[in-house]
Amino acid sequence: MPTPEIDPPVLRIAAAMLVRADGRTLLVRKRHTTIFMQPGGRIDAGETVQSALVRELKEELGISVDIQSLVPLGQFLAPAANEAGVMVDAALFMVECDQAVQPAAEIEQAIWLEPDAPRDFPIAPLTDDYVLPLHKQLCGKSAHRRD
Length: 147
Known about the structure:
Radius of gyration: 15 Å
Structural class: alpha+beta
Largest sheet: 4 strands, mixed
Number of domains: 1
Helix content: 10-25%
Number of strands: 7
Distance between the termini: 62 Å
Strand order of the largest sheet: 4-1-6-5
């Protein structure tokens, strides 16, 4: 008798494609992990995805973002980076950032990545499959500069 398929658990999250004027986007790595991903996180009960993202960016990176400045990029489903057998359902927003970021809470490291930069470190499926291709499309070579 065939085993019934069981859908994996799904975490609803709000995620940011933070971009600077030079076209770079921010990736973060949580403490005790090796995988880089988008800043953001789970949506608390009673929160909108936008308010959850603004809260997470303040908690994780110490930046203040006007909720009206969030640019919706879509809803994306991908395997969770650090939880085997779990999927993330991410509401993704572009956020222009001219503030200094300071990793806080569970974030251990933050890096600014150029659109065409080679990546020799592990990246979350959501970031690799959806966010970085969108970033390259939106910020591409026209914004590519070296500091």
